Amino acid sequence: MSDSSDVLRASIGLAVSTVIFALRDAEGDTSGPAVGTDAPATVWLPLVRRIREPQCGRWALPGGMVELDESLEGAARRNLAETTQLEPAYLEQLYAFGDVDRSPDRRLVSIVYWALVRPDEAERLTLGENVQWFPADELPELAFDHNLIVDYALWRLRTKMEYSAIAHAFLGDEFTLAELRGVYEAVLQKPLDPANFRRQMESSGAIEPTGGVVTGGRHRPPKLYRYTGDVQLVDAGPLTPRISA
Amino acid sequence: MSDSSDVLRASIGLAVSTVIFALRDAEGDTSGPAVGTDAPATVWLPLVRRIREPQCGRWALPGGMVELDESLEGAARRNLAETTQLEPAYLEQLYAFGDVDRSPDRRLVSIVYWALVRPDEAERLTLGENVQWFPADELPELAFDHNLIVDYALWRLRTKMEYSAIAHAFLGDEFTLAELRGVYEAVLQKPLDPANFRRQMESSGAIEPTGGVVTGGRHRPPKLYRYTGDVQLVDAGPLTPRISA
DNA sequence: ACAAAAGTGTTGCTTTTACACCCATGC
DNA sequence: GCATGGGTGTAAAAGCAACACTTTTGT
């Protein structure tokens, strides 16, 4: 037993972690339509408090070790489900972090994923003493190199938002253009011209009208749209990221 | 001994591999100015033949196991130097491949890097029965999932060439605009308008004239340029890739 | 009627693209 | 001179950004 433990310590541990993004209003409420209402939505992420050494007590990204019989993405999904009950609509590999001194205890390499969840999906997260939502750009000091990891994931989210069609991973199957624009504005942190935004989206071929409208607002009823799925070309390499809508 | 071997087999092996790109003319000659001459340059990469099971005899990417006391990038550089004598000007992480069945023997996760080398640097590769250059888009069937990996690396190279300043990693410190354009044409596999290319480069702020010219050609002597290094902003995230020119 | 957001039109500016043309050198 | 690539000019086309204006609902 001590022998096998020594050998294990002499090998490199392989873990996965995931940066999960969701949009919530400034107060942190995901209930109701989180985007498109008055309060401007912002990017939040859930963190878990470490309950053992090292770095016990600090907030950290959800994650865990990779089992022998599961893929890297499979490990990410399993750990996500176990620690946060979340099953994200979008999940993509971010980067492998493996500096020698990034974990004080044993040598650890973490394959980090990043995920987007819809507001209704985000509701599944059972909050508690050790699980909380945090605004993405005002985080406390996290465990290990997790601050750097979140910064990088945020950069990737904002960069990719500008040239690909990942925004719909924050929304339901049907959405108005105002809601879609709200996603872009929340992530990019700047207002967008509604008229120009509409034309860009319509001419991109990424969305199509469903035929339905939303009544009930004290204004003209907006049309509903859905994603066509013709836009994978833009951001997919030979690895074909899975946008399992 | 058999005990520790069993425990090791029960853990996940961590390896690094690297896709190395260089430009060579159609016949595969890197001597002389590989770009800017008559023959259109194309993308080549060096492969090594596996000399042990599994997949013995097949061509594969250079790589090896990660040692306990070295970083991932350090492991990539060490393996590169050991198996190919190459010290690339540009080296960046590509992706972590970790499917359960990607290696028939033991469970193996490979952190793959991609690298760019200059023609003169590429000369250092000592060719032999088990080390050869191959044109990037007509490869034989490689070991493991290495065909998929090369395809992805090629896609990243071509994508990144369009919005960042990595082209100079294929060139020396000083270069003419025709040579630089030759790099773009070789990688993107399409001719570019010399006049417009010049203006785009000059207005980008990425290059500046050295003052020197190249005499000897049977035409007007072209000016020499160098990279300014002001363009890291474009492609760097919080991870600050090292373009150690 | 009025407020509010949906949706359309128009204009000016910047960027891209295509291609004509002049410049400097070796032979 | 003439061939060859280096380098400049220019104009049409396309894309982008700003903003005025019309439409349709709830109250």
TrEMBL record, chains A, B:
Annotated TM spans: none
Coiled coil ranges: none
Domain Nudix hydrolase positions: 11-158
InterPro entries in the cross-refs: NUDIX_hydrolase-like_dom_sf, NUDIX_hydrolase_dom, WH-like_DNA-bd_sf, WH_DNA-bd_sf, WHD_NrtR
CDD domains (UniProt xref): NUDIX_NadM_like (cd18873)
A Pfam cross-reference name: WHD_NrtR
Database matches in PANTHER family: ADP-RIBOSE PYROPHOSPHATASE, SLR1690 PROTEIN
The name this protein goes by in its record: 8-oxo-dGTP diphosphatase
